[in-house]
Amino acid sequence: MIPITIDGRKLEARENQTVLQVAREHGIDIPTLCSHEALGPHGACRLCVIEAEGRPLRKGLMASCTLQVFPDLIVETKSPAVVQARKVIFELLLGRASESVALRELAEKYGVTSSRFKTESSEDCVRCGICIRVCKEQIGVAALCFAGRGQKKRVTAEFGQLSETCIGCGTCANLCPTGAIRMEDRGDERRIIVKDTVISAQPLVPCRQCGSHFQTARFIEHVRAKSDVEGATEIARDLCPTCARVVYAESVMVGP
Ligand code: SF4
Predict the structure, then answer these.
(1) CA 68 to CA 19: how far, in whole Å?
(2) Tens digits of residue pLDDT in 15-50
(3) Cα 163 to ligand 1 centre (Å)
(4) Which DSSP string corresponds to 144-161?
(5) Residues of the chain with CATH 3.10.20.740
(6) Mean pLDDT across the stretch 158-174?
(7) Beta carbon of 175 within 6 Å of any ligand 1 atom
(8) Do residues 170 and 176 make contact, with C-beta atoms less than 8 angstroms apart?
(9) pLDDT (tens digit, 9 = 90+) per residue, 74-92?
(10) Are 173 and 182 in contact (CB under 8 A)?
């Protein structure tokens, strides 16, 4: 184990852990928008800023999500320098994405209610990149990317057109910390929407038992291809989760 100190608390960290991971394990509050336990460290939003010192580091501000622990590392999460830096980062994010309720609430929790940095068109995407990373790293699809630079940087599908690779799983929408990506099921169609732009529209498969449209064919095929348990997904192929549970329970009770 690696001895480190956070806010005066002597803690034991494991090899290769980041400061953010250790802090979370011990209930020490550090805000972040771009970090998710299912994804690797990224350091995009910079909200997880902390002050760190200990050889070989020079004392300074750094992102806790990318800083790996080492023996006798000393971390401050609430020093005046951290509080000031975090305030400026919140202001920059609010200036760009003041429409995001989640961001406003998080900023408020840390005492920031307004921004000196207003941009022309405010929106709710903070460019944290979670949607892009989860689609590539966890779903294995890579349907999303960033386009443009600076203030014009935005999340889009390949070539800015309707995605041909998106499977409509909705993971990007579920993990988006600010609600900038939405998944909408309208009748027999599922749409993935970034701000006001539909980046994916796909037909939903009807359940053969109850008729409700419940999942995209591409998603079902994706899960089938990834599953290594023979027959595990057969029962759920054209049955909604509710009907699949009933059919599965009946099959177990009747037996082979
Ligand atoms: S809904 Fe499409 S874009 Fe979003 S994570 Fe799934 S495959 Fe990727």
Answers:
(1) 6
(2) 999 999 999 999 999 999 999 988 988 888 999 999
(3) 9
(4) EEEES-GGG-EEEEGGGS
(5) 1-126
(6) 92
(7) no
(8) no
(9) 999 999 999 999 999 999 9
(10) yes
Residue 227 vs residues 137, 140, 221, 232: alpha-carbon distances, Å: 17, 14, 10, 7
H/E element, 186: strand 181-186
Structure tokens belonging to residue 220: 């079902």
Strand arrangement of the beta sheet that strand 189-194 belongs to: 181-186, 189-194, 197-206, 213-216
Is residue 181 lining ligand 1, measured as CB closer than 6 Å?
A: no
Cβ partners under 8 Å of residue 126, min gap 6 = 33, 34, 45, 93, 96, 97, 100, 103, 177, 178, 180
Nearest CA to ligand 1 atom 4: 172
Whether domain 1-126 has CATH 3.10.450.350: no
Q: 78-137 pLDDT, tens per residue? A: 999 999 999 999 999 998 888 888 899 999 999 999 999 877 666 789 899 999 999 999
Nearest of 73, 91, 88 to residue 10 by alpha carbon = 73
